[in-house]
Structure prediction request, 466 residues.
Amino acid sequence: MLVGYLVYFLVVESENIINNPYNTRIDLLAKKVSRGTIYGRNGEVLAETMLDEEEKEIRYYPFGSLFVHTVGYNTHGKSGIEYSMNYELLTSKTNFFKKLVNDFKGKKDEGNSVHTTLDARLQKAAYDALGDYKGAVVVLEPSTGKILAMVSKPDFDPNNIAELWQTLVNQEGTAEDGTVDETSDAAMLNRATQGLYEPGSVFKIVTTLAYIRAYPDTWREFVYDCSKGLFNDGGVKISCYHGKSHGENSLDRAFALSCNGAFAAIGNEITLERIADTCNSLGMNALLGGSVPSLVNRFTLAEDSPKWEYLQTMIGQGGTAITPFYGVMLASCIANGGTVMTPYMIDYVAAPDGDIITEYAPQIYGSWMTEAEAGILGELMRGCVTGGTAYSLNSLEVECYGKTGTAETQAEKPNAWFVGYATTDGKADIAISVIVEESGAGSEFAVPVAKAVFMEYYKEYRISAN
Prediction:
């Protein structure tokens, strides 16, 4: 038992113990080592240690609020990479003789540097496109799991955290059910990983997969007549957005146009067990793996759930809630042929002389669906771009795939969603998840954010956006 606990402590708990603010070992390291620099994927300095006018060390963030929810802060506690890589930043692999010289001169050793996968260009494109809205954007490489950008708004400048601290603490808030309290700015909350939102029509990806699994040989025969823009099952009514009529729908047309009535009808043809099993196979109701902490997504339908809640869930309302981080993992899974890569944002740790100490490689997280299922969903998401609610992406000269969502909330305006990915030469380059709080339709508010990011990513590729 003692040996078993020792192994558990070293493998599982050691990082938490090392980074614990009450660990006096960290204080000793900080007295001898000048905290290392954090870099972006293209060499941009994201955080560095400088001297103020009184020759005291201060932590400086050149991009201000742009990376505050990923890089974090190092005053009044720690967050983000400043927290997760605390020990590495306060450890120095400076050569032995240089350490002797520094000791003799009374100087601190230079800390190791942390090199991230974060791309400042994409981060700024996402940040600017989100504008003054609350919300979040996550961008990653489907083939590797590298996180290229992660934006959350509202935000704050970590360079001024001492002055802002009390205001920031007073802003924090979540609703009673654990979802984001939209009456609060909660600028310290990373909405990308810690914000739970009703997924709206993004959940139709899950409903579609459940239906395909239930009817593998006949799903293409699905037909629904949305002549009135309203589905009515014994008094339980599901309306299409703004009551719009979509006419006669096949599944691919219903998916592209996001017809609520069609998906309520699909819900009547699949069992609770089928949709629950599909959610579980897609990583819902479980703690997602990887080095990026994220809230557990929530699927709450039960045997005693009323009919209205069941049908609302099929269109992404009801009690289901996901994070934007989960949205990008789902899109990446489809883009990567059903295989999910473990998301990560630390590329490598280097000594002050540039030698690599630790390098992080892509890892497979799991298989959420078959390659054939991913191919079908990709086909449907492509249709959403070429002739559906994400049509504005069709002007780009790269192939885009996606699903929009418009999630009704207690607020006056709905939350806008988009999840999807872009490819060139048959290879999935990047995946994205966007939520714009209290804005409107996903096609009108979330898709333009994705478009701005895609355009920035493919700047070196010949691209137009007419």
In short: The longest helix spans residues 2-19. The mean pLDDT is 89.
